[in-house]
């Protein structure tokens, strides 16, 4: 096998799957070239063209934007998981170290005994912790599916997150006011976040279809 043929095989391997049929035409053209120098130049040009089609700047920008949104969404998931986890850490510190631990230095526990501080922490009901963690899982799933470009599963993850947040907000409204919950109007930002994720997902889905390499035509 000549060097030109090897280069052409490499070009065929580099081409996007939807355009692999172009390699057939390239090989047909190569077989019609008799001069070794011209054949080598043609094969090198095919390799360059294949890489240009593989490395599509628009698709690189699209993937980069999708990864950025996925990263922000993952941070949102970490935030939702951090809050109940932090409260559990405070509770554990109060039980183990009383007011001598890090929790005892908090201003909201100033002048209280360890038992009073623990009672205050336990005002946060279990359902609130569970639903906060459910939203964290939903945001985490959204980040994963956004990164993978799986828009169908992203949609279902958004629905699950909205359902968990709706249940959490409804319960908060029934029990408001209480010092251990985020104000329902502020918590409504989660709806904005899920809505933006849906818009971003639809936008990326459309751009992905638009920038995807088209199948080769005869």
Keywords:
218 residues; 0% strand
What does this structure look like?
This protein has 218 residues and is mainly alpha-helical. It folds into two domains: 3-54; 57-211, no CATH class. It has nine helices and no strands. The longest helix has 41 residues, at 57-97.
Biggest β-sheet, characterized? none
Helix and strand content put the structural class at mainly alpha
Note poorly predicted spans.
none
* Gross morphology: elongated
Order of helices and strands: HHHHHHHHH
Compute the number of helices.
9
As a whole number of angstroms, the C-alpha radius of gyration is: 28 Å
Strand content: under 5%
Percent helix among the residues?
Answer: over 70%
- Average pLDDT, all residues: 83
State the total count of DSSP E strands: 0
Tell me the count of domains: 2
Give the end-to-end Cα distance, rounded to a whole number of Å: 27 Å
Keywords: Membrane, Transmembrane, Transmembrane helix
Secondary-structure blueprint:
Layout: H1 3-14, H2 22-31, H3 36-54, H4 57-97, H5 114-121, H6 126-148, H7 151-175, H8 184-187, H9 189-211
Helix pairs in contact: 1-2, 1-3, 4-5, 4-6, 4-9, 6-7, 7-9
């Amino acid at each position: 096998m000549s060097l030109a043929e090897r280069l052409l095989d490499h070009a065929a391997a580099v081409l996007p799957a939807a355009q692999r049929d172009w390699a057939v035409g390239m090989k047909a053209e190569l077989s019609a070239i008799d001069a070794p120098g011209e054949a080598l130049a043609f094969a090198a040009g095919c390799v360059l063209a294949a890489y240009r089609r593989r490395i599509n700047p628009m698709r690189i920008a699209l993937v980069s934007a999708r990864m950025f949104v996925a990263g922000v969404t993952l941070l949102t998931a970490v935030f939702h998981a951090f809050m109940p986890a932090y409260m559990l850490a405070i509770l554990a510190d109060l039980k183990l170290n009383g007011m001598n631990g890090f929790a005892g230095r908090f201003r909201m526990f100033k002048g209280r005994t360890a038992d009073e501080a623990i009672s205050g922490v336990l005002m946060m009901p279990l359902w609130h912790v569970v639903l906060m963690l459910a939203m964290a899982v939903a945001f985490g799933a959204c980040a994963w599916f956004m990164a993978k470009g799986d828009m169908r599963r992203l949609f279902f993850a958004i629905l699950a997150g909205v359902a968990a947040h709706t249940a959490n907000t409804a319960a908060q409204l029934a029990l408001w006011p209480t010092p251990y919950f985020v104000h329902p109007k502020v918590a409504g930002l989660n709806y904005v976040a899920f809505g933006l994720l849906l818009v971003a997902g639809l936008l990326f889905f459309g751009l992905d279809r638009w920038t995807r390499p088209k199948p080769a035509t005869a």
